[in-house]
Amino acid sequence: MTKQFDVTSIGQVPVDIFARVDHDFLENNGFQKNQCNVVKIDQANNFIETLKDTLLLAGGAAANTAACLSSLGAKTAFLGVTAQDELGAFMASTFEKSNVYYPVKALETNKGTDRVFVFVTPDGERTFASYYGAAHDMTPDHLDENIIAASKILYIEGYHLNALQGDAILKTAIEIAKKHGTTIAFNPNDVSIYKKHQSRVDYIMARTDIAIMNKDEAKAVTGKATAKDAIKQLSSKIDTGAVTLSEEGAIAFDKGEQCHLPATSKTVKIINTNGAGDHYAAGFLYGIANNIALEKINRLANLCAHEALQQHSGRPETDLSRFLEAL
Ligand code: ADP
Known about the structure:
This protein has about 325 residues and is an alpha/beta fold.
């Protein structure tokens, strides 16, 4: 089958709601700082009513990556659901604007479109509280076999394991990808996902061709104490991947070759680190899909991540394809 898409991504389609809070707020709500916490509808509605000066932006880890891929010039599709509400319409419009093919119809559900609250504490750190609404109503039937079959790479978001049928959806997607020779890429997204869904993450990792994650996730999924040992273990099991190291840049590997590049942005004022990993993943997947040399891929991915650090949104605000000329 002709591979019409470079990358098809599967994930949550949430609106990110940014709010400034103090540390007591995190403690009173029992949130793990810097991690992804999950909240139910009552708590989500309560936040909407009580939080002041919130900022709403399109979010979603794999959805951010899909938009970045498109900005780089990749042909990309996205599979994930919204509800038939205002937020759902907003999210669908963002895919259209960024030229990401999004064929999934909004669901008739009273759970509403997903939301991720991004709580920014006075120290500038971010703590997430994710509300899964429509995502809980997604089933494997919402996957489109033809689209996955027509993609070079299927990019799977770990956050989706928190959805009610997340495990079944991702397993079905993997089966379809294997059937059609589509390369499987996976990002666990957060240490909390590994803690909650260890055997499911292990199942996916055993079928993954390209693994992308940050150093904390790499340590969690390999059970190693240091990033160095985690990367050694990962690259012995999976052919291709990257481990991001925040201000230390990232280590990329591909079939025995390894390349460490420092971050390109040490001197730049960082506005927000949210979305840096998603931008990195887009650069990396673009490079693999287009057979670019590993060192250039790592440079491209770091340049994309650097962009994310200088803006509030996890979606691309500039044309990322300009970085291709500088490789
Ligand atoms: P995640 O956002 O998934 O936790 P990282 O924090 O490792 O991932 O960041 C991803 C990439 O973003 C890094 O590889 C690097 O290019 C860039 N980056 C992140 N934080 C910084 C920082 N403080 N200084 C410079 N670059 C950074």
